UniProtKB/TrEMBL annotation:
Subunit structure: Heterodimer of HisH and HisF.
Domain of life: Bacteria
Gene3D superfamilies (alphabetical): 3.40.50.880
The protein, known as: Imidazole glycerol phosphate synthase subunit HisH
Alphabetically ordered keywords of this record: Amino-acid biosynthesis, Cytoplasm, Glutamine amidotransferase, Histidine biosynthesis, Hydrolase, Lyase
Name of the gene: hisH
Pathway assignment: Amino-acid biosynthesis; L-histidine biosynthesis; L-histidine from 5-phospho-alpha-D-ribose 1-diphosphate: step 5/9
Domain Glutamine amidotransferase: 63-245
Localization annotation: Cytoplasm
InterPro entries noted in UniProt: Class_I_gatase-like, GATASE, Imidazole-glycPsynth_HisH
Record's function text: IGPS catalyzes the conversion of PRFAR and glutamine to IGP, AICAR and glutamate. The HisH subunit catalyzes the hydrolysis of glutamine to glutamate and ammonia as part of the synthesis of IGP and AICAR. The resulting ammonia molecule is channeled to the active site of HisF.
Enzyme Commission identifier(s): 4.3.2.10, 3.5.1.2
Family matches, as CDD domains: GATase1_IGP_Synthase (cd01748)
Amino acid sequence: MAFFIFQLRIYKTGLLQIYTVWQLFINHTVICYDNLLLLQLNIKKENGERKMDVAIIKYNAGNIYSVNYALKRLGVSPVITADPEVLSKADKVIFPGVGEAQTTMAHLQEHKLDAVIKDLKQPVLGICLGMQLMCRHSEEGDAECLGIFDTEVKRFIPHRHEDKVPHMGWNTITQVKDGLFTAQLENKFVYFVHSYYVPVNEYTAATTNYILPFSASLHKDNFYATQFHPEKSGSVGEVILRNFLKL
């Protein structure tokens, strides 16, 4: 009887070991299969949802890295470049800037970036000086600019003691149009720093009033521009940048 019980225990132990090995095999197979499916899904995702390429034009102007950080907060990793081929192949291009018009235009022309920017076919966003350089002419340094928008850039002339130049701080945008803006952005505050302005014209996509009404944003074909700094305009600026990335 004792011998039979001993054999039964050995038999049960053997079955348990076989069962354990079998379970390990099944679990390992399931894990491998799940990993294979995950790998296939990732491959399909990469093939079906290609990562967006966003390029920031690198030139002798400030504020480039503020725009870079703002985009990274939105989950986008842009490349900062002056390479014409990289710029032409990007899905979106951003033309930021804080500086002086005449000096900056001379730099763009020296490096042949003026022709590159005008020939871009994808959505392009000019910010602050970038917007002004997209115009035909600027009173700042009597600069001949890119001419994408057939309009002038003029200097603010104070009319009252309280009219300070530069226009610096928060102000509202009104009469917003489709593209970068939605109706919910009407009368929202954004951040400005500028001494020159673009008068309201046929390309105006949003308006702000400081000393006089002026263009807070411009739009023509694939070219979009803001006089204000969306990268410094908090949650409203994030919405505007997201809208640009969705174009």
